[in-house]
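This protein record is not my work; I was only asked to verify it. The record follows directly below this note.
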Amino acid sequence: MAESDPKEPINEQVVVNMYNAMRAELNQIYSKITELEMDASEHSLVINAIQPLDQFRRCYRMIGGVLVERTVKEVLPAVQRNKEGIEEVIARLNEAAEKKKREIADFEDKYKIRIRKSDSEVKDDSSKKEGSSQGVLVGPAGSSE
């Protein structure tokens, strides 16, 4: 390691801590993406449910914890805008995740980090390979003889 660079980690433990922090940050990004994708999916369900309805039909919407009465005509565009905003945030988070993955890969290359599987993971992998070729035999339903 170069002693002249003040940003260089001092020892192996510092490198491991930095690496773990980077991986944790990537996991947080993925968690947020998953959460927002669920929100976008819920928005799609609402849009599909209220789109065919009469534009002047009563509709209720939760705004800041308060349920307000509106019409489908007022609610539908707002829900569509919210969904578009969520999709934009998801796209930006996906870009951030890709950037973080590249950063982690560069860090792994720089410090020659290799991920070792624990013994239990190695055993799990071998049992999955064996079990993947085995099928399950189920008898006909309702025959309890």
In short: Residues 131-135 have pLDDT under 50 and may be disordered. The first strand starts at residue 58 and ends at 63. Helices lie at 12-50, 72-110, 119-131.
